[in-house]
# Entry
Amino acid sequence: GAVVSQHPSWVICKSGTSVKIECRSLDFQATTMFWYRQFPKQSLMLMATSNEGSKATYEQGVEKDKFLINHASLTLSTLTVTSAHPEDSSFYICSAYRVYEQYFGPGTRLTVT
Amino acid sequence: SQQGEEDPQALSIQEGENATMNCSYKTSINNLQWYRQNSGRGLVHLILIRSNEREKHSGRLRVTLDTSKKSSSLLITASRAADTASYFCATDVDSGGSNYKLTFGKGTLLTVNP
# Structure
């Protein structure tokens, strides 16, 4: 149990376009999900905390208008990278929280050309 | 901000040898967790150790926690080529209402040579 999926697993987009990444908890409900970004050979950096039915909480330095988060249901959170630029190219990983543990998705590789 | 700092940053060993990775952190924690990440993949949870625990075992994994030194170690015994991955510690910072937020260390890249 406790499986989290992400879609797509990889995406290539042109500079200036927007990209939506989905994070789903497949076999449990998650009122809280987290979004992380990971640059090559670096660690995971928490971007924001997504709470079902309320606004996301963003970490310092993360632009909320650029990284739109919607947690519309107990099993789905989405991250939309708006007006993507090459510097937004990264590996985006989500996690869903349940009973003191976070369960991680497989990640989404975003490449902005 | 990065709470955990792992060392070494990279470790290369031969199959069958033991691998030890260390993690240090700065503030009080509720628990500390270790994760493995294969290249370009998501995270796999390995083990969680609570702040009131000193040692924990899971298969070939042994984790220790020294809250007085704010440090933890992960020992992988009898390593295998399949253990090749990056290993991260993550702390669950004791921050009141949001005490389930994780802060990750920089990670150790372990290479196990066959």
Observations:
- Chain B has a mean pLDDT of 89.
- Chain B touches chain A at residues 2, 31, 35, 40-45, 48, 88, 92, 98, 100-107, 109 (CB under 8 Å).
- The first strand of chain B starts at residue 5 and ends at 7.
- Residues 11 and 110 of chain B are 5 Å apart (CA to CA).
